[in-house]
Amino acid sequence: MEHAVVSAAEGAIHTLLGKLGTIVLQEAQLLGGIRGELQHLKDELESMTAFLQDLSGRDECGKQVKIWKKHVREIAYDIEDCIDEFKHQLGDSSSAGGSGPVVFFRKATHILQTTRVRHRIAKQIQELKRRTMNISARNSRYSAKHLISGTAGNSMAAYDSQANLLNVDTRITALFPERRQLVGIEPRQGNLVHWLLEAHVQQLRVVSIFGFGGLGKTTLAMTTYQSLSGRNGPFQCQAFVTVSQSFDVKVLMRDILLQITQPVNQPSSPSTGAGKGPMEGLLKGMETWNVVQLASILRQQLDNKRYLIVLDDIWSMNAWEGIRFSLPDSNNGSRIVVTTRIRAVAHTCCFHEYDRAYEIKPLTDCESRDLFFKRIFGSSICPEHLEDISAKILGKCGGTPLSIVSIAGLLASKPVHSKDLWEKIYSSLGSEIETNPSLDRLKKILELSYNDLPYHLKTCFLYLSIYPEDHNIRRKTILRRWIAERFVTGKRGLSVFEVAESYFDEFINRSIIQPVTTSFTGKVKTFRVHDVMLEIIVSKSIEDNFITLVGEQNTLFPQEKIRRLTVHSRGVKYIATREILCHVRSLSIFAGGETLQFGWMKLMRILDLEGYEFLRNRDLKDLCRLFQLEYLNLRRTHITELPTQIGNLKKLDTLDIRDTAIKHLPPGITNLPHLANLLGGRRSYNHTGRCPISEFWGLHIPNELRKMDSLTTLAQVEITTSTSHYISELSKLSRLRKLGVLMFVDDDSTWASLISALEKLSGSLRSLLLWRPDGAMNFNIVNSLSSPPIFMKSMNLRGQLTQLPCWFPLLSNITELTLRATELSAEEDLKVLGSLPSLLYLRLHHNAYIGTEFSASAGEFPSLRLLVIHLDMSEDWEARFEEGALPKLARLELSLFEEASIQEITGIEFLPSLKEVSIRACHSNIVNVEEIATSLRADAEKNINKPIVTFEEKQWVPMRSRTDPPLDHMGNLLSSSFDED
C-alpha cells in the first residue's frame, strides 16, 4: 500500500497504510488484542481509501459526502500521529537481532520500561478504532437512507446534468464574443491568420493554441474562425467543435459533419449542429452509425476540399488521436486549430515541422488597464482616487482576460465606486470567488484545471497555498517539501526525488503554474501561482483543514486541529498556545512577529523560517525534540550556531543554513543517518572602507564525515589547514552528486588529497564548485586528475589556472560552465571550450579569459545558448563570430569593468538563433562602446531574427582586487553563484 493515495481528501492517508502494515508484522511486543485492533484500522482505512479514490473524479459532492471525507481525513491524521509516537517512544526493540541471555535480558528490560507507554497507546488505539467504526457506520446509515428514499441516483443524475449546463455556461461568452469589447485580440489574431493562410504550406497544417485557463484561447480561436468565414473566404468548409474533458468521439464527428455540409457563408452555431444542409438524406440515420462509419463519411466529405476545423478545449492526447484520423490531408492548404491548456497536447498535435504551437501570453499592463476600465466605466479613463487600488486589483489578475472581466463585472455592479469598497473587495477576493455569482464563471473555468489533475497531484498542488501572493517559489524547495510531507514515494527505477520532479513537470505541462526564471537547460528554477488560482486553492485548503493561514486580516480561532501552519503576516500570538500547536506537521513563516515555541510541535516534519529576521539562537533550544523533523530551513536568518543535540533529529533529510553566520557544525551532525542535503556557506561584504571587501566562507565539518553516507548535496564546505582532515573522507560519500568546495590552502598534499577524492567520486558527481577565493589553483595537481568526471553536468571554477586541464575535452556531458579569475589566454583553450558538444551555458566572469580576441569558427559551440563575458583588461578587445559558429546562441552578454574597452564585434548577423545582445559598462570608462552598440544594431538588422541590442551605463562599485567579483552600486553580487536550490 506504499503507492500513496493523495488527493485533496486522501492526503492524510499517504503512507499510513504502509506504517500500519509494518507495525502489525514487525512489532512482536504489542499488548494483547492491539495487534488485531491495528489490523482492523488498516482494513477500514483501505476500504475508505478505495471509496475516496472513486470520489476523487468528482470535486463537487453533496454535503454529507464532504462531511464524511472530513472525518476520514481527521481520523487518518490522528492514527498516523499515534503510530509515529508509538514508534518513537517504544523505540525499535524488534531490530535487535541475535539470541542468547544478553539479548533476551535487553528485550525483557525494554518491555518492562515501556509498559506504561504501551498501555497508554493501547487505549489510544482502542479509541481510534471506536471512532473509525462510528465513521463507517454513520456513512452506511445515511447512504442507506438516500438509497431507500431513491434520491441518491436522482441527485447524482441531477449533478451530472447541472455540471454539463455549467460547462456550457462558462464557455458561452467565449464562443460568441462581442468584437468591440475585446482588447489585445488584433496582434494575436494577426499571427494566427498569417499561419493559417501561408500559401507555401500546402500540407495539412495544425496550429495549437495553449496556455493557462482564462487567457482567451477560445475567444482567439472563435474570432479568427469568424474572420475567415464568408462566401469568398479561403476555405470551402468549416467547423468549430468543443471537445472538453469528457468528450464523445461520435458526437464530435456528427457535429463536424453537420457543420461542413452547410454553405460556408451560413455556418451553424458552434457545437450545436443546428440547421439542415444538402446532405440531409445521407445524414438522416447517423445517430446509429459507429465511429468507423462516421470517420469514413467524414473523410469522404472533406477529401479534396480546403477546410478549417477548430477543435476547442482538448484535454488529452487520446481526444486528439480519436478525431485526427478522420481529417484527411489533400495537400490543398487545409488547416486544423486546436486549443488546449496542456503543453504536451499542444506539441503532440504539432507533429510536423510546418505545424505551429502558439503559447498565448497574458495581456500587457496597458491592455489590462484598457479592458478593466472599459468594462467598468465604458472608457479607458480611471478616476484618480481609484488609481492605486485598481493597480493592486490588476496585479492580482495577472493579465488574464477572464479574471479582469469577471472582477470588473463585480465592481461595475456596485452602486458606488469608492476606494474603501474596492479595497474591501480586493482584500476579500477569496471569499468573493467562493460566494459571489458574478465570479462563478471565473471560478468554474479555473477549477477545471484543478479538477482535471490526477488524484496523486491534487495534494501537491494544494500545498502551494502555503505561499503568499507574488512569492517566487524555488523548484527544489517545493520538491523537498513534498517529499518530507510524504506526498511522493519512489517508483521502480526512479528515486523519490525524480518522481517529485515528474510531478512538477506535469504542472508546467498543464500551464497550472507560471515559470518565473528558467535555466538555459530548460529547467524551471523559480515559479509562481497565479493570484486568482491561489485564492481558489487557499479556499479549498482551508475548507479541508489542509492548511491554517495567518494572514493580514486574520485573528485565528481554529475550530479543528492545526496540521500545517503558514504565517503571512504578524499574528502568531493569536495561536501560540501549546494545545493548539501540538499537532502541527509543518510551519512556514513569511513575516515578522513573535517566535513560536517549536518544542510544542513534537510531530513537526517541516520547519521553514527562511528570512525570518526575529529568529535567534535561543529560539532553537527545543528544536532537537522534533523527532519527526525532515526539512529545516534557516536560510538568511541571524542564527550563529546550531544546537549541540542536532544529532537527535534522526529523520532530517534537508538542512539549509545558507547566508547565516553558521560556520562550525556541532559534532552530532555526523549522526544524522538520512541527511541528504547539507546547504551552507556565506558571502558577505565589509563596507567600512572606501571599497567593499567580499568575504567567502563555507562550513567546517567535524570528524567522521564518512558517516554521512546519505549525502547527495554538500555545499559549500571550507578547507583550511585545520580542516583538511576530512578531505579524504569525501571519497566515502558514494551518493554525492553535488559538491561545493572553498580551498584556502596552498600545500601540495592537501590539493593531492582533494584530487584523489574527486577521482573516487567521478562516477557519481554531477555538479562541482571548486573555488580558490584568494589565489591560484595548483594547476599541476588539478591537471593530473587520472579519472576525469566525465558525467559532470555543471562546473564552477574560481582561481588562477592560466590554462585548462588536459582532461577538459573529455567533459562531453557538461551543460553549464562558469569560470572566474582563471586567467586563460590561449586560443587553444577557447577551441577546447568550443568543442564541448553539450555545453549550453558558458560564463566567463571576471578575468576568466584575459585574451584580447574571442573568436568562434564554424562548428564550434554547437549547443551553446547563453554566452556571458566580463571584460577587465585595458587593451582593446574584439570578438569574431564566423558563419556556422554558435548555431543555437540565443543571448550574448558583455560587461565592461575598470578600463576595459571593445575594439570590434563582428559576425552577429551569422548567429541564426540570436535574440538579444546586452552590453553593460561603467559610465566613467566608456571607450567607443556606444559606437559599438550602434554598429551591432546595424548588424542585427541583417540577422534573420532581428535580435535586440541593449546598452546600459552602470555605476560599478570599485573592487578590492582582481579576484573580487563585480558589484553594483548596492553592493550586490552580479555574477551568478553555485545555487539552484
Automatic annotation (TrEMBL):
All residue ranges annotated as the NB-ARC domain in the record: 191-377
GO molecular function list: ADP binding
Every Disease resistance protein winged helix domain range: 466-537
Region (Disordered): 960-981
Domain named Disease resistance R13L4/SHOC-2-like LRR: residues: 583-948
Top-level taxon of origin: Eukaryota
Single GO biological process annotation from the record: innate immune response-activating signaling pathway
Keywords: Coiled coil, Leucine-rich repeat, Nucleotide-binding, Plant defense, Repeat
InterPro entries: Apaf_helical, Disease_R_plants, LRR_dom_sf, LRR_R13L4/SHOC2-like, NB-ARC, P-loop_NTPase, RX-like_CC, Rx_N
Domain Disease resistance N-terminal: 12-98
Family of this protein: Belongs to the disease resistance NB-LRR family.
Name of the featured protein: Uncharacterized protein
Organism lineage: Eukaryota, Viridiplantae, Streptophyta, Embryophyta, Tracheophyta
